[in-house]
Model the fold of this input.
Amino acid sequence: MSLLSELTHAKASLSRSISAENPTGEPGGGGRATTGTGAAAARELGVGWKVSPSVELAPHSTTTLADIDGQGAIKHIWMTCFPDHWRSLILEFTWDDAAIPAVRVPYGDFFCNGWNKRCNVNSLPVAVNPAGGMNCYWEMPFLRHATVKIVNLGDAALPLYYQIDYALEAVATPCLYFQAYWHRSHPLAQKAVHPILPQIAGTGHFVGTYLAYQSNSTGWWGEGEMKFYLDADREFPTICGTGTEDYFGGAWNFEQPQGQYGSYSTAFLGLPQVIQPDGLYQSQQRFGLYRWHVLDPIRFTTGLRVTLQSLGWRSGGRYLPQQDDIASTAFFYLDRPDCPDLKPRLDADWLEVN
Done:
C-alpha cells in the first residue's frame, strides 16, 4: 500500500489502458473515434461520446486486442461477451515476440467460467461480477513487447467489450513470465490420471488451478489426489494432496447443508459453480472449482508436472476409478516467455461443451 503514496514510483511507472476507445493506449488517444459500434447511438452527440465501446469478432478469425511496445506489465484485464461463446473464443497472450503464445486458453475457463454459464467469482486474481464482467489481476510482465489476441472459432460474429490496463515501467530481470495451459480429458481413460500440467522444463512457480469438472458416475466424485512432481521427481511426487475437495479448500464432499453442495468463493479458493441435472438433456452434474497459490506458490527449479486422480466410491468401501469429463487450466510463471513443452488441443469440436 505504501507505493500508492510515493511520488517517485509514479514518475517511474506510466499508466496506460487499451480498449476499443483507445486501441493503441497512446497518451491522449482515448475517445477520438469517429466510427465504431456505438456510432449510431452517438449520432446526435458526436466524437467523444462512446462512439467505439466494443469490437466485432468476425467468425473464424483472430483479433489483436493489444500490441504493446516497451517494458512493463499488464495489471488488469476486463472483458465481457455472450456466455454461449465462452468456450469457442481463445485468449492468446505472447511475451517478447516468442514463437508461441504463453497463454492459449478458452475465454470462459481463463476466468473460471468453463461451462458457457455465468457464475460469480470473488477471488483475488480473478473476479467475475454480474452479469458476466470478467476481471483478471494476474501480473503479466514483459521486457520488450506484448500482444493480446482473441480467436473466434465460431460461426457467428460477436461483440467484445474489453479494457487492458498496463504500466510502462522497469521490470526486474531476469523476470518470470505468466503462462496458462488448458487441457481436457473427455472422458478420462480407465485408471488414468488427468494431466493438469504435463512435464515442463524450467524454473518458476505454479500459482493456480481451475477445473471444469463433470461427474459421469453416481455418488461422490472427488476422492482423487492432486500431485506435484517437482524437479527430479519421477515416479513419486514431492507434494501429494489428500483429495479433490481438500485441495480446493473444502471438506467432506462439500456437503453443507446435508444433502446439498455448498458453493463458496473466497480470495484463494472456491467452488463457485454447481450445475445440477435438469431431468432432460443436461444429464450430468457439473462443477467449477479454483485454487490460487498466491501466498503459497509451488516453486520449482528445473521442471514440474501436475496430475489429478479421478476417484469415487464403489461397494465394499473401495475406490472407484472414474471416467469423468475434466477440463483444467494451469496457471504458472516460468523463466522463459513461452513453453514449447505444451501443445494444447484447441479445435472447436474438442472445446465444445457437450
